[in-house]
Amino acid sequence: QVQLVESGGGMVQAGGSLTVSCAASGRTFSSSAMGWFRQAPGKEREFVAAINWGGVVTHYAESVKGRFNISRDNAKNTVYLQMNDLKPEDTANYFCAASSRGTLIGAVVTTRHWDYWGQGTQVTVSS
């Protein structure tokens, strides 16, 4: 069992930066691929970024590529999402996800690929 707790959300002006974190409990974190999704009001949950167990392989949604960076610290059981040049359309509740698999092989952009979810942290970008 893995429990995920997100933090670091808040309000920021367009063009600003924010880093959200996800702390995981459980002994399998270092062997698990991790991901970030987001969900805006009235919209489906969408993929943002993912990172493999070792932190070497990453994958991003086209809408955030070049602006967001996902990283992890296995010693701290934590995964981060650094968000730069934020836009109002980035406003959403950001969710952390963990997979029982360590690689990013498969449909990582779909919610069904992921086995554990956090409760989310709200990010609001004002124009």
Tell me the series of helices and strands, N- to C-terminal: EEEEEEEEEEE
- Tertiary shape: globular
Main sheet properties: 7 strands, mixed
Class from helix and strand fractions = mainly beta
The parts where pLDDT drops under 50 for at least 5 residues are none
Number of strands: 11
Number of helices: 0
N-to-C CA distance:
40 Å
Average pLDDT for all residues: 96
Gyration radius (Cα, Å) is 13 Å
Proportion of helical residues: under 10%
Estimate what percentage of residues fall within beta strands: over 45%
Sequence-ordered SSE layout with sheet pairings:
Elements: E1 3-7, E2 10-13, E3 18-25, E4 34-39, E5 46-51, E6 58-60, E7 68-73, E8 78-83, E9 92-98, E10 116-117, E11 121-126
Parallel strand pairs: 2-11
Antiparallel strand pairs: 1-3, 3-8, 4-5, 4-9, 5-6, 7-8, 9-10, 9-11
